[in-house]
Amino acid sequence: MRGDCRSAAQTEYYHVLCALVADYEQRAGADRWHKLSPIEALRELMELQEVPSAQSSDAG
């Protein structure tokens, strides 16, 4: 919904929702992903899922 079409209540709801999402992302560490290279991000995701490096090379 565009900003000029929202009611005051909808605009307030939007701002609260944005603040909640930003707070969650900060606490969850989501802001660090954009700082990683694609290969670093992949390695981090593999580590989180406990995928051994050797298993990933078998797919190629």
Helix content: 55-70%
Overall number of strands: 0
Q: From the alpha carbons, calculate the radius of gyration and give it in angstroms.
A: 19 Å
Coarse morphology: elongated
Q: How can the largest sheet be summarized?
A: none
Point out poorly predicted stretches.
none
First-last Cα distance? 44 Å
Structurally, the number of domains stands at 1
Quickly give the structural class: mainly alpha
Nearest-integer average pLDDT = 82
Secondary-structure element sequence? HHH
Count of individual helical segments: 3
Beta-strand proportion: under 5%
Account of the protein in words:
63% of the residues lie in helices and 0% in strands. It has helices spanning 8-28, 38-48, 53-58.
